[in-house]
Description:
Layout: H1 9-60, E1 64-69, E2 72-77, E3 80-86, E4 92-95, E5 99-101, E6 114-119, E7 122-129, E8 135-139
Antiparallel strand pairs: 1-2, 1-5, 2-3, 4-6, 6-7, 7-8
Subcellular location: Cell inner membrane
Transmembrane segments: 12-31
Family: Belongs to the GSP H family.
Amino acid sequence: xxxxxxxxxxxxxxxxxxxxxxxxxxxxxxxxxxxxxxxxxxxxxxxxxxxxxxxxxxxxxxxxxxxxxxxxxxxxxxxxxxxxxxxxxxxxxxxxxxxxxxxxxxxxxxxxxxxxxxxxxxxxxxxxxxxxxxxxxxxxxxxxxx
Length: 146
């Protein structure tokens, strides 16, 4: 009798079952990774924008305003636009009040001022602003800004 080549029906069914289990585990993990990456990227870009506003205020010795918008942010030195940034993801939104830095790099802030980064409407991260105007990133799961 000749040896047969190929797979049996049982082997094919087991392969499909194992592949299904791997996909059921892998897809949610990939979506979570995608969400965390989008939030982290936006948080870092927003932090860079706030730092740009602060450093340009000191460098140019003028008031510079950082204005968050739902789909991004804008940095203006008086009537001159220094930066307009749009967030790449439709699921990520930015919220908060405008921050104006003076020529010394300080901003008039409340002790809990922050700019929020939300994913599908849920706050995931904040760029907190200290009383001196120095920005730093804080995850929403770590609580509010000090």
